[in-house]
Specification:
The protein is of the alpha+beta class. Helices cover 28% and strands 28% of the residues. The structure holds zinc ion.
Length: 224
């Protein structure tokens, strides 16, 4: 079940209060339309009932995917100094949540990416480790400053045939300032190499509910 509450938002223009629906938790399986509205930002739209001003009022939410078994504690603000602090959150108990993945996520692009990774059934730690090393090794001319986002796995048989990548391609979106966004495909084999590395590296074991991104990988790899 998704849960919401009403709060009053004070208009920055006329200073009168108007109500806003805040979704404290969103169940992606039961309420797919809420998921879409969250991901395209529509849930944050607010309109002043007095003067008609329309602004976005972001809020954090608990995102629950029952089918793929994960829960995300989402904050729309990507800059958070406590991002990697290992927090103990009261997780739901019971057998139903035994195989669940719990993560903190900061930022809207990061949320879209995390959902795509986990819906594709991939290991997010392996994907982030891959991103970290692709940049470190300067693969395909990637810089540290580039933003790299997981896009999806391409299993198109024609492409597999022409590229010779038998297990398909893992695709990333590269965003670089002053450049057009570019899609970079890599063989899935590469991902499986990183997955193996994650499984064999004890530093890659996350806390109960933590923010897993390239920054987290960097912190963990510094610990010998
Ligand atoms: Zn107003």
């Amino acid at each position: 079940m998704s849960e919401c509450s009403k709060k009053q938002v004070t208009c920055p223009r006329c200073h009168y209060d108007s109500p806003m629906t805040v979704w404290n938790s969103i169940n992606a399986d039961l309420d797919p339309e809420l998921k879409e509205k969250l991901l395209d930002g529509e849930l944050y739209n607010w309109k002043c009932e007095v003067c008609g001003l329309e602004i976005d009022v972001p809020f954090g939410t608990l995102y629950h995917d029952m089918e793929h078994k994960f829960m995300l504690f989402f904050s729309p603000w990507d800059e958070d100094e406590d991002k990697y602090k290992e927090i103990e959150v009261p997780l739901p108990s019971g057998m139903g949540f035994k195989d669940y993945i719990f993560r903190s996520v900061f930022g809207m692009n990061e949320l879209r990416e995390k959902i795509s990774i986990l819906e594709a059934g991939l290991n997010d730690i392996a994907v982030e480790r891959m991103k970290f090393f692709l940049k470190l090794d300067n693969t395909e001319g990637l810089y540290q400053e580039d933003a790299l986002f997981f896009l999806g796995v391409d299993m198109d048989p024609d492409k597999i045939k022409s590229s010779g990548w038998e297990r398909g391609a893992i695709k990333f979106l590269r965003l670089r300032e002053g450049k057009e966004p570019e899609i970079l495909p890599f063989p899935m084999e590469k991902y499986y190499d990183y997955l193996l590395a994650v499984k064999m590296d004890p530093r890659m074991k996350p806390a109960q509910c933590t923010c897993i991104d390239e920054g987290w990988i960097r912190i963990k790899l510094q610990k010998m």
